[in-house]
Write a structure and sequence with these properties.
With 242 residues, the protein is of the alpha/beta class. It is elongated, with a radius of gyration of 19 Å. Strand 6, helix 6 and strand 7 form a beta-alpha-beta unit. It has two domains: 69 residues, 60s Ribosomal Protein L30, Chain: A; 161 residues, Alpha/beta knot. The strands form two sheets. It has a seven-stranded parallel sheet, sandwiched between helices. It is built from nine helices and eleven strands.
């Protein structure tokens, strides 16, 4: 991302401040009150962040929704996967997440939020064909995008090969898999791979994974929303690691 991004929502802006994200200015609704608003004002003052009190029309233009606060931030910085791997203690059983073609920004934001809650070391996406980190992504992630490294790679397969070189097992989600997620060991150095809702994981990507698993499905709907499936898989990994 090269241009200024606007984020919105009091809690999201508070999360950005607490994560030491560089904020250029905060825009607050003139007549807004309340405990959270006061906490935001205090945080802005302590961190020497410029505050501008604006009418609802200005906020609607910046946030495109019913919000009391917006802020302009510097671009989200993406991380280098190899550098992260070099700094990772593989003996600690790190957990990585690869997204192969997730394009919906709200799904992406929800996935980032869950990944942050489950101790994921980094999220890996491809340069092309992936959801951007924009205001909607940041809002849906509840600011978690500031707390977890996101790595962009030229090709997901390159990332998989690199993870394997560091002895990290790659496990993908596919409804046609023979093995259930619950029947495999996830208490290992692990990278979970999920694909888009439309086509799942790319067939060429599936071929290079160490293992493919599925979640048990009941009822007439054959698949889960990708962010829901991601949450189920991550929390099974957490359960096994407790």
């Amino acid at each position: 991302m090269e241009k200024t991004t606007y984020i919105y929502g009091i809690r999201t802006i508070m999360e950005a401040i607490e994560s030491n994200k560089e904020i250029s200015k905060i825009y607050l609704l003139k007549e807004a009150e309340g405990l959270l608003m006061q906490q935001l004002k205090t945080a802005a003052r302590k961190n020497n962040i410029a505050v501008s009190y604006v009418p609802i029309e200005k906020l609607d233009h910046l946030a495109k929704g019913n919000h009391q606060a917006a802020a302009s931030i510097s671009p989200v910085n993406f991380h280098d996967l190899e550098t992260i791997l070099e700094q990772t203690d593989v003996a600690s059983n790190p957990l990585f997440l690869l997204l192969d073609g997730v394009t919906d920004v709200r799904n992406f934001g929800a996935i980032i939020r869950t990944a942050s809650c489950t101790g994921v070391a980094a999220i890996i996406v491809s340069e092309k064909g992936s959801a951007p980190v924009n205001a909607a992504t940041i809002k849906t992630s509840a600011g978690a995008v500031f707390n977890i490294p996101i790595c962009k790679v030229n090709h997901i397969k390159d990332a998989i090969y690199l993870l394997k070189a560091y002895d990290i097992k790659t496990v993908g989600a596919n409804e046609k898999a023979a093995d259930l997620l619950y029947d495999i060991d996830l208490h290992i150095p692990l990278a979970l791979v999920l694909g888009s809702e439309e086509r799942g994981i790319n067939p060429s990507t599936l071929k290079v994974l160490d293992q493919v698993v599925k979640l048990p499905m009941q009822g007439d709907i054959a698949s889960l929303n990708v962010s829901v499936a991601c949450g189920a898989m991550l929390y099974e990994a957490v359960r096994q690691r407790l």
